[in-house]
Amino acid sequence: MELLAAIDTRSSAARLAPPGPTPEHLARILDAAAHAPDHGRLRPWRFIVVDAGMRDGFAAAAATAKRVRLPAMSDEQFAAEREKMRNSPAIVVVGCAVRREQTKVPEIEQVIAAAAAAENLFLAAHDLGYGVMWKTGAAAYDPGVKASVGLLADDHIVGIMHLGTRLK
């Protein structure tokens, strides 16, 4: 796919189903993501593939974060929220570990670099034929969710990227 065609035809998938990216495709997608513009060459992005060993903990943390923001959430809604994360074909959390020890590159520029990496990830997945949903919501700002994928409380999640076969 040509770059401009990928940009012009890219859209978030409404629904995804298995299969997710093959290991080879996922490696290529992450490699493309790591070629994002990066002021100061700090590489502040972190790509966390939420594998089978992390999936239940991540899903529970994300559902809990939503329940904290929406205390009226029923047990059924909580379970449905958890299942959305557990049933996604593939999830890559795009985080930003801000390098605060240096003062040349402001925090916002580091976060923007991570967002550019997320867009590269999206375009690469699209180019390889996968559907993508770029999510944030309560989970992206919750310290427990961040901890579940190895990020620190003051790190940022710029995208929870769901990848799979586009249904809509």
Largest sheet: 5 strands, antiparallel
Report Rg: 16 Å
Q: From the helix content, strand content and strand pairing, which structural class follows?
A: alpha+beta
* Number of contiguous helices: 7
Percent strand equals: 15-25%
Shape assignment: globular
Number of strands: 5
Helix content: 40-55%
**Strand and helix order:** HEHEHHEHEHHE
User: Mean of the pLDDT scores?
Assistant: 95
What's the multimeric state?
single chain
**Low-confidence region ranges:** none
Q: Give the N-to-C terminal Cα separation.
A: 20 Å
Describe the protein:
Strands 1, 2, 3, 4 and 5 form a five-stranded antiparallel β-sheet that branches. The protein is 48% helix and 18% strand. The longest helix has 21 residues. Helix 2 runs antiparallel to helix 5. By secondary structure, it is an alpha+beta fold. The mean pLDDT is 95.
How does the SSE layout of this entry go?
Layout: H1 3-9, E1 16-17, H2 23-33, E2 45-49, H3 52-69, H4 75-87, E3 90-96, H5 107-127, E4 131-135, H6 138-141, H7 143-148, E5 156-166
Antiparallel strand pairs: 1-5, 2-3, 3-5, 4-5
Outline of the structure:
By secondary structure, the chain is an alpha+beta fold. It has helices at 3-9, 23-33, 52-69, 75-87, 107-127, 138-141, 143-148, and strands at residues 16-17, 45-49, 90-96, 131-135, 156-166.
